[in-house]
Design goal:
globular; mainly alpha; 0% strand; Tetracycline Repressor, domain 2
């Protein structure tokens, strides 16, 4: 039971807000693509897929950050840092959850299956981006937003200009709120040498977030 509890913490089942953040653009896209209530199977697959892939993303995130989480006040109690879950176990959890999600996607059409492969690459690569560039929050936005084109291909088997406008709104929305989230870790991140939009924006962070949010509102107006 203790082991299962640590796995639950690893995949953040104790903090389900991330699931809701990922579900929001997914559900909007499904309803717009269907012009009403989406297909029941498609809806079920995407709800379960969101839960599985968000959990998988948390596992690979903790694996990627295992050497730096101990230096950040907010993350020093995570299971990999404390040794309650091993690196191998984290990778197994990530692989198992990803395979389960892919198994669900196999119930969808061919285009959606192909699109899902891009989604896995985005999700798996995001945790490592903070080591290479200052825009990991944008990368996260792309990973979260990839459910938008997948929802359109699954429900309507097409990609339209509206699809990519919805994708853009998700990238903007995620970048804004995750930059605010990263601002809390900025001092620790500067010490250990990882990058973020919070560091890139510096003292202009709140103003730039405001600009991003204004762009988001404009995009939503265009969507109607």
């Amino acid at each position: 039971m203790e082991r299962l509890q640590q796995y639950a913490i690893l995949v953040r089942l104790n903090k389900p807000i991330g699931i809701l953040l990922l579900l929001w653009p997914t559900m909007i896209s499904l309803w717009i693509a269907a012009q009403g209530w989406p297909d029941t199977l498609v809806l079920a697959v995407f709800v379960m897929g969101v839960i599985l892939m968000r959990s998988a993303g948390c596992a690979i995130n903790d694996y990627a950050d295992r050497d730096i989480d101990g230096s950040v006040a907010r993350t020093r109690d995570r299971p990999l840092v404390s040794g309650k879950v091993s690196e191998k176990e984290a990778l197994i959890v990530f692989a198992a959850l990803s395979l389960c999600a892919f198994g669900l996607v196999l119930l969808m059409n061919r285009l959606t299956i192909i699109m899902s492969l891009v989604g896995v690459v985005l999700a798996a690569s995001y945790p490592f981006m903070k080591r290479y560039h200052f825009l990991p929050q944008v990368h996260l936005g792309a990973a979260f937003g990839w459910t938008v084109p997948m929802a359109f291909t699954a429900q309507a088997n097409e990609l339209t200009p509206l699809t990519w406008l919805l994708f853009l709104t998700t990238v903007l929305w995620t970048t804004a709120y995750d930059t605010m989230y990263a601002m809390a870790d900025r001092e620790d991140d500067l010490k250990i040498g990882v990058k973020s939009t919070a560091i890139l924006f510096g003292p202009l962070d709140k103003k730039i977030i405001g600009v991003i949010q204004a762009m988001l509102i404009m995009a939503l107006i265009l969507i109607g």
